[in-house]
Design goal:
Blueprint: H1 9-15, H2 25-33, E1 50-54, E2 57-61, E3 68-71, H3 86-95, H4 115-126, E4 131-134, H5 141-151, E5 160-164, H6 171-182, E6 188-189, H7 192-199, E7 205-209, H8 216-224, E8 229-234, E9 248-251, H9 257-268, H10 274-287, H11 291-308, H12 312-316, H13 337-341, H14 344-349, H15 353-364, E10 368-369, H16 375-379, H17 387-393, E11 397-400, E12 403-406, H18 410-416, H19 423-438, H20 445-450, H21 452-461, H22 464-480, H23 484-501, H24 504-520, H25 524-541, H26 544-567, H27 578-582, H28 610-616, H29 630-635, H30 647-653, H31 669-676, H32 702-730, E13 832-835, E14 849-852
Parallel strand pairs: 1-6, 4-8, 4-9, 5-7, 7-8
Antiparallel strand pairs: 1-2, 2-3, 10-12, 11-12, 13-14
């Protein structure tokens, strides 16, 4: 019996340790059966404070104010732990097995028809191969694992390690369980990197029963322990391992008819009759030969023999004298085939009342049966601890790790007949009992850790008040026992229960513990969120001690964040490689002579100088009028035309969005996006209807090109303004003749025309006119009289303006001829006499035109 049962709190405190069972156990069990936790008669024991080493931290589990965490002090680091020897491993393995039950020993069941599978498993494990033993629930996987463990005791240097995988979906806790079994490292939980480094050196045969994970999780477990050979026992519903895991597969089938009869006779203790043999054959067909069904069938036949009083001693006794039940008048027949396939109801109806009460508790806890030492307090019977052996002999229980739970299908069968009707009451009673037991100072954390599944089941089925109290007392015990998966689950359940119950102080405690747990496991973001929540709740309660503890833990979180940022500096982004390709001039398909630039201004003005080329033809060569001022020549220099290239090369060299170049590489993400996607991109030049010249040369910077474009635009504006002013001043004095076109005597040149400044992409409105040849002037080839409705300012002109870039000074004659001057007339005799026209106003003069004397 448990040492905490059958003695008062005063006896525990006075003795300072475990006591001996006494008749006072009934007084401790009565309050638990009524739903109230026992109250110690003496003062409470000392708080259970445990100091652990968790990675780089020292964790002090304080059940009163919350856990305290601090970095390891210099000189207190532990060295590499030593491995356990064979004797220590045997003690550890015995502690990991189910406990020995009180009462008469249960006879062992023979392992029938499994010799071939046993030899194959031993042979594969001896070669270092991992095997997955697959079979349905009740097929005898655990019994086969026991036989394999006995045969493989001396194969590996670290022996045979047995681990239960029930309830584990991730390999983390399994690796910690393997580490704690092989290494002698009490009160130490290494961090993940150190854990992986230590389990890599373990060479053992690992028997993993009740496996519930597969796929990538199982691959991670196998990769972490390359020197271990695993025997994985799982059901067919469990996820299969991946194809790269190289795990052998062994499937367990049902027993044959002869083996089923032999198993029945071994459990019954006598040979079967012909009627029973026929019944066993039908049951074998219905149950597909599962050994569990024949263990339960043997229990039903034993109960039938007891009811029929087949023993000789029962015939000599008077019926009903020493028994509470009267003797049945008729003979109990064999169970039906349906009862043999689902025997839980029939078996439960023939066991003791304490056993039936234990079954109700197990149904309320989701199939988990508490340790037999807790049953006297939960059931209210001092001899209820013997009910576990009774249920195990009937096949209603099965061992799972260090505990027992209902066999496959038993919980559902019992709930169908009413065993789950009092589940809420049973769960509340179990929660209050465990709240008292886990908080008792005499109960070591390892005991609480082995009872974790039953405690968590009681926590899930209890009301919010009982759940909050149980979580508050069980959480420190789980933390001290290094069962941190159960610790996290109970903390989350407790935080939710405290929130629903309105217990702000308890809610702050649970969030503080969750933050400390996350910090120990390296989840810095989660730790910050939980600790900040706890500090806020404790600040509202004016809990100074709790707030200080929370702020200390939060300071460690900040240190971890700073250390992580220093270990991994921020990424420096560089400009994308595609940016340089957008401004690179494409190489034409045909060889072309690169154009020679005479001035830096003309290197970035391809759009402004393409208009004359398009109108005059690709063979026209621009010439500069001698009358143009030096300022205009300096700003706009003639460009030697390049050999036209194909339209494909022109299309490729046009960038969609210009990329701004920088003298220094960008250092921030915003600068990278500014270079790649400028806020005000320059529009691309319009597509040319005919092949145009492509300026050759390397790509220039965006800033230099912008300055060149502005200078060229200014020069063109000055030329256009001079032309407009000269046209306006000369058109007011002379009028075009009524008949015949007016012919200019000044030779025309292919100078740039007036370009509207509304947009660089607008095409010219005038139709293209063929430029004159290089031989001189051609009368009547370029100018025409203005048509009605068209202003003189928009009259097309092919003559370059001689107006200087700046405004004309008063009294300065203008040398630019207008389009409305009279055409020269030639007479038969006489010499040409230049005739000057009187100025019409200050600062305005007309150009002289040669005339002939009559």
């Amino acid at each position: 019996m448990d040492r905490t049962q059958g003695q008062s709190g005063r006896d525990e405190q006075g003795a300072g340790g475990p006591g001996t069972p006494s008749s006072a156990s009934a007084s401790a069990a009565a309050p638990a059966s009524t739903g109230q936790a026992p109250t110690p008669s003496g003062p409470p024991g000392p708080a259970r404070v445990v100091t652990l080493t968790a990675g780089d931290f020292t964790l002090t589990v304080n059940p009163v104010d919350g856990s305290e965490i601090e970095p390891l002090r210099p000189g207190t680091e532990r060295g590499r732990p030593a491995k356990r020897d064979a004797a220590a491993r045997a003690v550890r393995d015995a502690a990991a097995r189910p406990p020995v039950l009180p009462g008469p020993p249960i006879s062992g069941r023979p392992l029938l028809a499994r010799g071939e599978e046993l030899e194959r498993l031993v042979r594969l494990l001896g070669r270092g191969r991992s095997v997955r033993l697959t079979g349905p629930s009740g097929s005898g996987r655990s019994a086969l694992l026991d036989a394999v463990a006995a045969r493989c005791a001396g194969l590996a240097p670290d022996g045979v390690v047995r681990i239960s995988g029930y309830g584990h979906q991730q390999p983390g806790e399994l690796l910690h369980a393997l580490y704690a079994t092989v290494y002698d490292a009490p009160r130490e939980r290494p961090e993940r990197d150190e854990l992986l480094a230590r389990v890599r050196d373990i060479g053992a045969v690992v028997l993993l029963d009740d496996l519930e994970m597969g796929g990538s999780a199982l691959d991670e477990l196998l990769r972490a322990t390359p020197e271990c050979a695993y025997l994985l026992a799982a059901t067919p519903e469990t996820k299969a391992p991946s194809d790269d895991s190289h795990v052998e597969e062994v499937f367990l089938t049902g027993l044959g008819k002869e083996d089923c009869v032999a198993l029945l006779e071994a459990g019954l203790g006598r040979p079967l009759t012909d009627e029973e043999t026929a019944w066993a054959g039908d049951l074998r067909f219905a149950s597909e030969g599962l050994p569990l069904r024949f263990v339960q069938a043997a229990a039903m036949l034993r109960q039938r023999d007891e009811l029929n009083h087949s023993d000789e001693d029962d015939d000599e006794e008077e019926p009903g004298v020493f028994e509470e039940r009267p003797r049945d008048s008729g003979v109990v027949p064999l169970p039906t085939l349906a009862e043999g396939a689902a025997p839980a109801e029939l078996l439960a109806s023939r066991v003791s009342e304490s056993a039936r009460a234990a079954l109700r508790i197990a149904c309320a806890l989701g199939g988990e049966l508490p340790h037999h030492a807790h049953l006297p307090a939960l059931v209210g019977d001092t001899h209820a601890d013997t009910a576990v052996a009774e249920l195990l002999d009937c096949g209603l229980l099965t061992p799972v790790g260090t505990r027992y739970r209902l066999a496959a299908g038993v919980a559902r069968q019992l709930e169908d007949v009413g065993y789950g009707d009092t589940a809420s009451e049973e769960a509340r009673t179990a929660a209050r009992h465990y709240a008292w037991w886990t908080g008792h100072a005499s109960v070591v954390p390892e005991r609480v850790g082995r009872e974790a599944d039953a405690v968590l089941a009681a926590l899930a089925g209890a009301d919010v008040v009982a759940a909050a109290v149980l979580a508050r007392t069980a959480a420190p015990a789980f933390a001290a026992s290094l069962h941190w998966e159960a610790w996290e689950r109970v903390l989350r359940s407790g935080a939710e229960a405290a929130r629903k119950a309105g217990e702000v102080a308890e809610q702050a405690y649970f969030h503080h513990e969750l933050g400390v747990l996350a910090l120990c496991e390296g989840r810095v973001d989660r730790a910050r969120a939980e600790l900040e929540t706890s500090i806020g709740l404790r600040g509202a309660l004016a809990d100074k001690r709790g707030t200080v503890a929370g702020r200390r833990a939060l300071a460690l979180v900040v240190d971890r964040e700073v250390a992580g940022a220093a270990a991994s500096p921020p990424l420096r982004l560089e400009a994308p490689a595609a940016a340089s390709e957008a401004v690179t001039v494409a190489t034409p398909a045909t060889p072309a002579t690169p154009a020679v630039r005479t001035d830096a201004v003309t290197k970035a003005v391809p759009a402004a100088k393409s208009a004359p080329a398009l109108r005059s033809g690709p063979a026209a060569a621009p010439r500069v009028d001698p009358a143009v001022s030096a300022a205009a020549v300096t700003r706009v220099a003639p460009v030697t035309p390049a050999v036209p290239v194909s339209a494909e090369a022109v299309t490729r060299m046009t960038p969609v969005v210009p990329v701004n170049r920088r003298s220094e590489p960008p250092t921030t993400l915003s600068e990278v996006f500014e270079d790649a996607f400028p806020l005000s991109p320059q529009p691309a030049p319009p597509a040319a209807p005919v092949p145009a010249t492509v300026p050759a040369g390397p790509a220039r910077g965006a800033g230099r090109r912008r300055r060149v474009l502005l200078a060229a635009a200014g020069a063109l504006t000055v030329v256009a303004l001079g032309t407009v002013v000269s046209l306006a001043m000369s058109s007011s004095d002379t009028e075009p003749p009524a008949d015949g076109p007016a012919v200019s005597s000044t030779p025309t040149t292919a100078a740039p025309t007036t370009v509207q400044q509304n947009s660089g992409n607008d095409p010219a409105e005038e139709p293209p006119v063929t430029a004159p040849s290089d031989g001189g002037t051609t009368p009547g080839a370029s100018a025409a009289a203005p048509s009605p409705g068209r202003t003189p300012g928009r009259t097309p002109s092919r003559r370059p303006s001689s107006t200087p870039s700046n405004s004309p000074r008063p009294g300065t004659p203008s040398t630019a001829p207008t389009a409305t001057e009279p055409t020269p007339t030639v007479t038969e005799t006489g010499e040409a006499t230049p005739t000057a026209t009187a100025p019409t106003g200050p600062g305005t003069a007309t150009a002289t035109s040669p005339t002939t004397a009559p």
